[in-house]
Write a structure and sequence with these properties.
The chain contains ten helices and 15 strands. It is α/β, with parallel strands linked by helices. 44% of the residues are buried.
């Protein structure tokens, strides 16, 4: 089974305003409410490509009910821990520029956190666990490390799509995949990265520190894939970008879904780029038909 873990889900409230005037009344052109959270996005896209998964994490309140009801309608299997607090609402303001207002998230009690740890305890060597996104401030600093330690003890594979210290600490445990974008990669190693060429040494360093595979998204410059001694680059399809939220999560879903199906990391890389692009060109997340339509436009070449 593929499991996704979202410690801090949200409702993503997407608001379109033609021009924002601060300090004045602004009227929306249109709005949209979607279940949010990086792991939830991964599970939704996996479901779209007919790859089953189980979504884990914390949900609470009327906002949590919105998310669980939506996922149930889509046919995504869930085993969320029910919490006392309300799941957060994040505002995505689409105007002349894109602005995000993200809430911190609810308080997670020790009892609630222990329930998730008990679920992690049940994982086996046949499972893949995808850890995505930030954690609520109320959880201990080492919460990710404790979950990963349990996963490693079960000999299960895991993916981690976070940034900073949590990503760095996870590398020694040999994650199946890490997926920083070029900004996160630069921040991770305290450097400036301004080109594909400048990204390559640091992508290789992710593998040297323990990652089995590394995907580095480069926005309009495509994506890089590091595996073994090889580095590959993929072009991105042409299209109108409507939605940057969820594109990286879609890349993770496309990669893992294809890797499970084909056992071929290069095919998985190509699928991941098509999946991320399909989401970027959509109001919501990529669908199977949109992904298939873009696959032929993704060209993968070996660069080292």
């Amino acid at each position: 089974m593929i499991y996704t873990v979202t410690l801090n889900p949200s409702i993503d409230y997407i608001v379109h305003v033609s021009s924002v005037q601060l300090g004045a009344l602004n009227r929306m052109d249109k709005d949209l409410k979607l279940p949010g959270g990086k792991g939830i996005n991964v599970s939704r896209v996996l479901n779209h490509i007919n790859q089953p998964s189980t979504a884990l994490g914390f949900l609470g309140g009327f906002t949590g009910n919105f998310i669980s009801d939506w996922l149930e309608k889509e046919g995504v299997h869930t085993q969320f821990v029910s919490i006392e607090g309300d799941t957060r609402i994040n505002v995505k303001l689409k105007s002349d520029t894109e602005t995000e207002l993200n809430a911190q998230g609810p308080v997670i009690t020790k009892s609630e956190a222990d329930q998730l740890m008990d679920q992690i305890e049940l994982m086996t060597a046949e499972d893949i666990i995808i850890f995505s996104g930030n954690k609520p401030p109320s959880l201990p600093e080492d919460f990710y490390q404790k979950m990963i330690a349990k996963i490693v003890s079960k000999k299960a594979n895991f993916v981690i799509d976070t940034a900073g210290t949590e990503l760095l600490n996870a590398l020694a445990h040999k994650p199946l995949l890490v997926k920083p974008n070029h900004h996160e990669l630069a921040d991770l190693f305290g450097v400036a990265i301004g080109s594909v060429e400048e990204s390559i040494p640091y992508g290789k360093k992710l593998l040297a520190l323990g990652a089995q595979h590394a995907l580095v998204s480069m926005a309009g410059d495509g994506a890089l894939f590091f595996t073994g001694e090889k580095v590959y680059r993929a072009t991105v399809p042409k299209g109108i970008v409507k939605n940057s939220v969820g594109a990286g999560d879609s890349m993770v879903a496309g990669f893992i879904g294809a890797l499970v199906d084909t056992k071929d990391p290069l095919k998985a890389f190509k699928k991941s780029v098509a999946t991320g692009s399909a989401t970027a060109f959509s109001d919501d997340l990529a669908t199977r038909s949109e992904i298939e339509n873009l696959l032929k436009e993704v060209i993968v070449t070996e660069i080292t």
